[in-house]
User: Fold this.
Amino acid sequence: MLMNKNEYIPHIAMIGMSHKTAPVETRECFSWHDQQLVDLYEKIRKMDVDEAVYITTCNRVEVYITSADVHTAVEELVSLLEKYANSRQDNLETMIYKKYSRDAVEQLLTVVSSLDSMVVGENEIIGQVKESYREAVQHQMTGTVLNKLFHQAFKTAKRVRTETEISRNPLSVAYIATELARKIFDDLAQRNALLIGAGEMGELILKYMTKYNLQEITIANRSLHNAERIADEINRDAHIVSLDDIADVAGSVDIIISSVTAPGYMITREMVDDIVKQRGSRPLFMIDIAVPRNIDPDVAEKHSIFLYNVDDLEKIADENLKNRLKEMELATALIQSDVDEFYDWYEQLEVVPVIVKMQKTFENIRRNELRKYRKRKMKHLSEEDFQLVEELTSQIMTKSLHNPIVNLKKIRSDHASKGHSGKTLKEKTRIIEELFDS
Assistant:
């Protein structure tokens, strides 16, 4: 940050595009890493930009900057992105949002807290932003303002996660199915699963469950090729059988996921009667993702059978979404509070140069006078006694400057709260600053 150069406070701004404003084919043009990111930051260095952090995730691209002239810098950034995307600026402009000052601060805190994500409350975004920030630091693109801002954003995201329920109720049907299985069974690593069919959602549920190290996996499918493909994608050895063999293997599994197109029930009440005889009272978790259904709904009446169909899972997802939306109000209030906290710190930077000059001037006077007195009138004092004089004069100076500094900060706060221009504040601080010019 160029605080020392010309003693100005750089303004904050950001530009971006997300899943809400730009299609994936546009966003993927800006997914840069390694040398491309080096080249990008080198180009940004040549602009009227003090600090910059480039964020890229699967759902968004955003650039946060500080600059003495943010409006010019923002337009230069848009032109730069246009060149990289090889697209006409008027096209790109319709997809890009631009935010300045407090709005830019609020945008970052909202993004990192996952309130602007495709899935509200997801936890991946904070790791992605941290990685982008880390890269900016490594390229020496950050300074006082953006360092403070990003650390504030990470702190806010942690508050939102710990002080609200926004991330605690899953929205993904596959994730919900897995969480239900974990409630029924203490340890999925000791459980066997059967996947019937190669439907996308059934396969996704199996993938989620394999993260908990399922003991054995069986795949029943019409196509040997599709069954082997699924086994490869989940990176697990699997016992592969035909659909005709379901009755033979179903009794030895704890979880059945069914997602196959069939004219009738693949698992009938009679089949489940036989399974229950084999299993006794041991629970069996069944997920019927197919439409029309693969499993006779009457089997849910059986003791120790836990059957969920796609509507059941989506109802849970809808209820969880309602709960998340309620929690968004609390999360938004937390974000606004932290935006206030950051902006209070940021606006005080305007008076920091004056405060520093006041302190430096008084400190120089104190040291010079002590030096003179040490040579002339305090020769008789021991070093230990003179050290006490040093401490006393330092305390007097600090306490004497306390009220002027507090009031100077108050002038800044009053100007901000009453909407006065920054120019008026600069004039007042300049008058004070001139009092200490040599």
Summary: Residues 310-348 form the longest helix (39 residues). Residues 1-7 have pLDDT under 50 and may be disordered. The chain is about 55% helix and 10% strand.
